[in-house]
Amino acid sequence: MGVGIPEGQRRLIEKVIDQGICVRCGACVGLCPYFQFFDGKVVVMDQCRSDTSRCLQVCPKADYEATSLYSEGPDTGENEGIGPFKKILIARASNKEIRNPAQYGGVVSALVIYSLEHGYIDAAVLTDTGNRFSPAGRIVRTRAEVLACAGSRYTASGSLSALNTAIEADMAGLGVVGLPCQMEAMERLKLMKPDGQDRHRRIRLKIGLFCTWAIDYRRLEAFLIQEGINETPKKYDIPPPPSEKFQVMTEDGWRDFPLSDIRPLVQKGCELCQDMTAEWADISIGTVEGREGWSTLVIRTDMGSELINAAIRDGWLEAGVLPDESLEHLKQAASNKRERGRKAAK
User: Fold this and answer.
1) Is there a single domain that holds both residue 175 and residue 307?
2) Which residues of 313-336 are buried (b: 16+ CB within 10 A; e: fewer)?
3) What is the CA radius of gyration of the chain?
4) How far is it, in rounded angstroms, from Cα 311 to Cα 99?
């Protein structure tokens, strides 16, 4: 498939997909009609005929100098690893109807619903539960649709394909919830030629999720079947350290597996990632060690500050101060991931 293929598709196949470092973010899917996401995998459908290399420009694992975000490193000093921010809080949803079915305080669900119902965004791109197939991107507009997507997945979802679908449908005022690699892909979109800035202007809010790594869905599915779990799990969880557990909720309750059994299922491309806290988002959200049911909120932009302040003012979020000890743990963990990613990239 190498002869006559334009540079973008050829390099993406040879340097990312064939090398096994694709993280299934979905940024190329729908941007190029010849890439599709199916059941946990990006599939090449046919030979591309375009010479724009847009797929290569947005891919967070592609070595494309014009859109690279890490040539000089995005931050230095005491916040190395976390990236720039205005403020860090802890928070949880005030409404128990939102908080209870969600995970770690329901902050993401609360913010997306609040943004939709108060006009900050017109629609949101989330990740669904997957049902029979792997989790995938979904465009939502209502409270019920948001709550149907609540919970953590821990597997790659290709959800930016839904963002590309929304943009192709001429939608604007979009909110996107995603992993650090997906936040990076959207930041690279600004630099993409010829139409990256026009496409990026459709995105109004970016909520990033802390992530150490994501699991290859197909390998996880095979592992669970081997362990006697044949139905689609209801929920997944990785409790904060020092638990070292991967938890799966089935019809019969929770099953615990040592993280040492799960780490071999992690995507190879995650080893190259330098970003644990989704530094290219407006707001980044993750767990709080020692505070069950609460989330850490890293507020990075004016848009992020405006939204969080309004949600607290209107009683949608309960918020507090992140303890100094937790902040130091966060900085250390983020810095460690940055260093591991840099070493792997070399």
Assistant:
1) yes
2) eeebbebeebeeebeebbbebbbe
3) 19
4) 14
Does the predicted model carry a pTM greater than 0.90? yes
CB of 314 closer than 8 Å to CB of 114: yes
Same domain, 254 and 275: no
Do the Cβ atoms of 186 and 156 come closer than 8 Å? Answer: no
For 28-63, how does the pLDDT look when each residue is reduced to its tens digit (9 = 90+)? 999 999 999 999 999 999 999 898 999 999 999 999
Kindly report the backbone phi and psi dihedral angles of residue 268, in degrees, each rounded to the nearest multiple of 5, phi listed first.
-60, -35
Looking at the fold, whether 209 and 221 belong to one and the same domain comes out as: no
Report the DSSP pairing between strands 123-127 and 137-140. antiparallel
- Contact (CB, 8 A) for 53 and 62: no
Does residue 276 share a domain with residue 169?
yes
**Total count of domains within the chain:** 3
Distance in Å from the first CA to the final CA of the chain: 28
Q: Measured between alpha carbons, how far is 252 from 254 in angstroms, rounded to an integer?
A: 7
If phi over 0 gives left and psi between -120 and 50 gives alpha, with beta otherwise, what is residue 158? left
User: What CA–CA distances, in Å, run from 243 to 239, 325, 332, 335?
Assistant: 6, 18, 18, 21
Q: What residue type is 286 in one-letter code?
A: G
Helices and strands, number each (H, E), in the chain: 12, 13
Tell me: do 92 and 165 sit in the same domain.
yes
Name the residue with tokens 């340097």: 15
Range of the domain at 146: 83-215+266-345
93-151 tens-digit pLDDT: 999 999 988 888 999 999 999 999 999 999 999 999 887 789 999 999 999 999 999 98
